[in-house]
TrEMBL record:
This is Transportin-1. Pfam families: IBN_N (PF03810), PDS5 (PF20168). PANTHER family: IMPORTIN BETA. InterPro entries: ARM-like (IPR011989), ARM-type_fold (IPR016024), Importin-beta_N (IPR001494), Importin_beta (IPR040122). Residues 67-135 form the Importin N-terminal domain. GO terms for biological process: protein import into nucleus.
Length: 401
């Protein structure tokens, strides 16, 4: 297990060995310049990194502590990050958990120390990510996507101009893994950097990205369809101009996916309609009867996540001025569905110990009978922000509502 630090130290120039506070990149023997395209690991060092990764998966607390100490010491050598990305992207003979762990350790290093990475190390990592985003393993693809997003979050979207164009180009790949991997990375970037993507700082890439995403709403793969909707959904609440310019096409494509067989797609469709109900209700009003009928079905969806997402629709609709007008004729259908959904299942009752704890003779406490009001995830009530905390009058207002 003992990691041979002299191996890494011996790869440093003599001046760097004498002054360990410097962080010169590690060089394999005979490698010359640490050019990103030419970098190759030292075999002995690579084997020791692999051993460290395997030991880090040990459940033994003492071993874990040793591993953490070793990782802290190795992080003083920037070239250590080259070894980590090499394991993640190129050692396809290794098991997936070890490769993924290597990527996650690198992700943590990027998060904590990326600004101090020498340019050749940063370039090598970025190059390897883009070259291997289509790995055959879904776990590795996801890990690379997380790594890309972490680099982008360090201010690198502006400093990595080829990232978004390359990922968008990879969406056109005939290889499913490449397309899915690129979409996974783009979804994470959209989630983390939605405002930046709609800014002049990046020359508004959404003008190209939104129409591109809409093309994939009809893809044969449900995973790709789900990624495409999830990407566009990130820009609804901010009313991104590129999306508003394509709003009718977006809604048309959503309606076409209303009967999709995949639960993740249905969940994202419900989520989109809930947000559109708040920010672009004008576009939904002509179709409101059909949308309500659809949401009645989805509230009863056999997939609980889809049903929960559909429930948000009724909460958001309740805040709209047109609620009474459009919903009154549907209440005879809606109320039984909602009441039925409130019932505890047998498992719920067992978990709540309702079958063994009889408390009919015990008076209800104030907390037991105090009403609770669910608030939509996409809506903040206007009066909620205005009332002071702890106001008894505010509670009375809620009770009246």
């Amino acid at each position: 297990f003992f990691f041979s630090f002299p191996l890494f130290g011996s790869l440093l120039p003599r001046e760097s060995q004498e002054k360990p506070q410097r962080t010169a990149p590690l060089l394999p023997p005979g490698a010359g310049s640490p050019c990103a395209m030419d970098w190759q690991p030292d075999e002995q060092g690579l084997q020791q990194v692999l051993q460290l990764l395997k030991d880090s998966q040990s459940p033994n607390t003492a071993t874990q502590r040793i591993v953490q100490d070793k990782l802290k010491q190795l992080n003083q050598f920037p070239d250590f990050n080259n070894y980590l990305i090499f394991v993640l992207t190129r050692l396809k003979s290794e098991d997936e958990p070890t490769r993924s762990l290597s990527g996650l350790i690198l992700k943590n290093n990027v998060k904590a120390h990326y600004q101090s990475f020498p340019p050749p190390v940063a370039d090598f990592i970025k190059q390897e990510c883009l070259n291997n985003i289509g790995d055959a393993s879904s776990l590795i693809r996801a890990t690379i996507g997380i790594l890309i997003t972490t680099i982008a979050s360090k201010g690198e979207l502006q400093m990595w101009p080829e990232l978004l164009p390359q990922l968008c180009n990879l969406l056109n790949s005939e290889d499913y893994n490449t397309c899915e991997g690129a979409f996974g990375a783009l979804q994470k970037i959209c989630e983390d950097s939605s405002e930046l993507l709609d800014s002049d700082a990046l020359n508004r890439p959404l003008n190209i990205m939104i129409p591109k995403f809409l093309q994939f709403f009809k893809h044969c793969s449900p995973k790709i369809r789900s990624h495409a909707i999830a990407c566009v959904n990130q820009f609804i609440m901010d009313r991104a101009q590129a999306l508003m310019d394509n709003i009718d096409t977006f809604i048309e494509h959503l309606f076409a996916l209303a009967v999709d067989d995949d639960p993740e797609v249905r969940k994202n469709v419900c989520r989109a309609l809930v947000m559109l109900l708040e920010v672009r209700i004008d576009r939904l009003i002509p179709h409101m009867h059909s949308i309500i009928q659809y949401m009645l079905q989805r509230t009863q969806d056999h997939d609980e996540n889809v049903a929960l997402e559909a429930c948000e629709f009724w909460l958001t609709l309740a805040e709209q001025p047109i609620c009474k007008e459009v919903l009154a004729s549907h209440l005879v259908q809606l109320i039984p569905i909602l009441v039925n959904g409130m019932k505890y299942s047998e498992i719920d009752i067992i978990l709540l110990k309702g079958d063994v704890e009889e408390d009919e003779a015990v008076p209800d406490s104030e907390q037991d009978i105090k009403p609770r009001f669910h608030k939509s995830r996409t809506v903040t009530l206007p009066h909620e922000a205005e009332r002071p905390d702890g106001s008894e009058d505010a509670e009375d207002d809620d009770d009246d509502d």
